[in-house]
Give the backbone structure.
Amino acid sequence: MLGYDYSSDNLYFITICIQNRVCCLGKVIRNESSNDVNSQLFQMDLNQFGQIVENRILWLAEQYKYVVLHNYVVMPNHVHAIIEINSSLVKDTKIKSLSQLVGAFKTTSSKHIHLAGYKEFKWQRSFHDNIIRNKRAFQNISNYIDSNPDKWQKDVFY
């Protein structure tokens, strides 16, 4: 959003895609333990590269104490996450913008994936983001993230 301060306290829904939407982070499989009516029918089976991506998403909240990771899913060729920037969690710390945080995630995950042997791995340039403005939007987006594996066959990133 033109003129918006993306380092300000807020909740953000982000989507980060792999270049050319190459499916290389794992696969969607049937959830064998889904006996409950409310449980997911499908789940992600992350390969070593998907595990690296998941580790780096979690790393963001560990590395930057003002980042709260509310929800995420690593899909075969993209990642969805709800990230909160909350400057009240730290004192005297320069707050990185959302773009800088995503850049740190992309850089470190790419480096680890390259070291693991997938030298051609690349993230798509830029990322998609939405500011989450209220509780209803937060809940809808969180539900979307949770149900993403169930909707994989119909997903626009498939």
Remarks:
- The chain has a mean pLDDT of 92.
